[in-house]
Amino acid sequence: MCEAGTSFIPIAEAARLLETTEMRVLMMLKKNELQGKHEDEAWYVDRLSLQICGKPKPSDIIKPGCGGGCGGGCGGH
Q1: I need a labelling partner for 4 at 20 to 30 A (CA). Which of 49, 55, 59, 76 fits?
Q2: Residue 48, domain extent
Q3: Are 36 and 4 in contact (CB under 8 A)?
Q4: 0.70 surpassed by pTM
Q5: Phi, psi at residue 60, to the nearest 5°?
Q6: Coil, strand, or helix at residue 19?
Q7: Using an 8 Å Cβ cutoff, are 57 and 18 in contact?
Q8: Residue 2: inside a domain
Q9: Structure confidence by residue, pLDDT tens digits, 19-76
Q10: Residue 48's closest CA among 12, 16, 13, 2?
Q11: Which three-class secondary structure state does DSSP give residue 3?
């Protein structure tokens, strides 16, 4: 788990900095890979946790050998 700091940014900005999607940032928050807070119906990410965690790799999102939804029955989804 990443350590928290004190400067928070909207998830849209966090996604841009990590070169990923807002959905992936939300998943990273849920897994405690990033620190954040939910305030006024919006999520904010601790800027320091971005620096500690770094960018997610494609392998963090899709399993090796997986096309991500081909329906081929490989069991990789």
Answers
A1: 59
A2: 8-61
A3: no
A4: no
A5: -75, -20
A6: coil
A7: no
A8: no
A9: 899 999 999 999 998 999 999 999 999 988 887 665 555 555 555 555 556 666 565 5
A10: 2
A11: coil
